[in-house]
Backbone:
């Protein structure tokens, strides 16, 4: 089994596995408002990144979450 090395959090970038991901008043935690994608990485590159970002941004929009630009999303995936 592969260990999770980091998670990307909006506004914080890549967060190490030893750091807390959420604050107690985070609406994702208190109200379940969140959008996420799990992306497989091969040799340091995200597999079918465009399709993942399409789904992530569309899902966030349907939930009424604040918009995040595609360039910013791509920037976080390269960390």
Residues:
């Amino acid at each position: 089994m592969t260990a999770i090395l980091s998670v990307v959090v909006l506004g914080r970038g890549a967060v190490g596995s030893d750091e807390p991901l959420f604050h107690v008043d985070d609406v994702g935690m208190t109200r379940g408002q969140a959008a996420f994608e799990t992306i497989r990485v091969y040799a340091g590159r995200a597999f079918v990144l465009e399709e993942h970002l399409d789904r992530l941004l569309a899902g966030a929009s349907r939930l009424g979450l604040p918009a995040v630009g595609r360039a910013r999303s791509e920037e976080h995936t390269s960390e």
About this structure: The mean pLDDT is 77.
